[in-house]
Specification:
- The chain is of the alpha+beta class.
- Helix content is about 40%, strand content about 20%.
- It is built from 6 helices and 7 strands; from the N terminus they run ααααββββαβαββ.
- The protein has helices spanning about 1-15, 30-45, 55-65, 75-115, 165, 180-185; strands at about 120-125, 130-135, 145-155, 160-165, 170-175, 195-200, 220-230.
- A hairpin with a 5-residue loop joins β1 (about 120-125) and β2.
- The longest helix has about 40 residues, at about 75-115.
- It starts with a helix and ends with a strand.
């Protein structure tokens, strides 16, 4: 790809009448505008496409359209070509996510199989593993309740992706507004208790993952401290 891009860049530079060894000299306002437009096109448009870009053909298309000359494709054909490229990229990304998810699910299952033998670890019917770190007696929340908790979430390799302890402030939320593993798990807890949960991906964020910190199919580990049952959600 690099060879193709270098060849294309040289062709474009020779067509314009000069070769920029160290970048173009932006001597005029028109020069700066032209370069700025190129940067924006490269950043906002070209980065969306994984295919190799022939910069000479790109320049010819831009020049013809900008100057109102006859183009080699209709605008409808151009849109169809771009849509086909986007669909191809989406299919590739979906297949990659599927493979990553399958790998992560297998690693999570192996982790939970080993964790199952740890003393004090219990497993719910749905497949959540939990361990009582600090026991307490008292009321337990319902799925419709709002709670105040301190918590830390990690991946199975121990990487922290979220922590109310790190933020220095407990979190408040309705138990029917979080992942299913939390909705079920926190209802097992009494106020003042602290539990450790291992939540399989189907009860966490599933094959889609969450942001850049939680990949598709990830099994998650949470330490949760139930501080207070605030109210019943309307």
């Amino acid at each position: 790809m690099k060879k193709t891009l270098i060849t294309a860049c040289v062709a474009v530079a020779m067509t314009s009448g000069s070769v920029f060894a160290e970048g173009p000299k932006l001597a005029t306002e028109d020069d700066r505008l032209s370069y700025s437009l190129g940067m924006l096109i490269g950043d906002r448009i070209l980065k969306q496409y994984s295919e190799e870009i022939d910069y000479y053909i790109l320049l010819e298309g831009m020049r013809a359209q900008h100057q109102g000359k006859e183009t080699s494709m209709t605008m409808e054909e151009a849109h169809m070509s771009m849509q086909a490229s986007e669909e191809k990229a989406a299919a590739v990304a979906a297949e990659k996510a599927k493979e990553e998810s399958a790998k992560a699910i297998a690693l999570g299952q192996a982790f939970m199989l080993e964790n199952k033998s740890v003393e004090g670890v219990m497993t719910t019917e749905s497949g959540i593993q939990y361990q009582v770190l600090t026991a307490a007696e008292g009321p337990k929340p319902k799925a419709t309740d709002k709670v105040k908790v301190h918590y830390k979430g990690t991946t199975i390799d121990g990487k922290t992706f979220d922590s109310s302890y790190d933020r220095g402030e407990p979190a408040e939320f309705g138990l029917n507004q979080v992942i299913p593993g939390w909705t079920e798990g926190v209802q097992l807890m009494s106020v003042g208790s602290k539990y450790k949960f291992v939540i399989p991906s189907n009860l966490a964020y599933g094959e889609q993952g969450a942001g850049s910190s939680i990949g598709p199919g990830e099994t998650l580990v949470f330490e949760v401290e139930l501080l207070e049952i605030l109210s019943a959600e309307k």
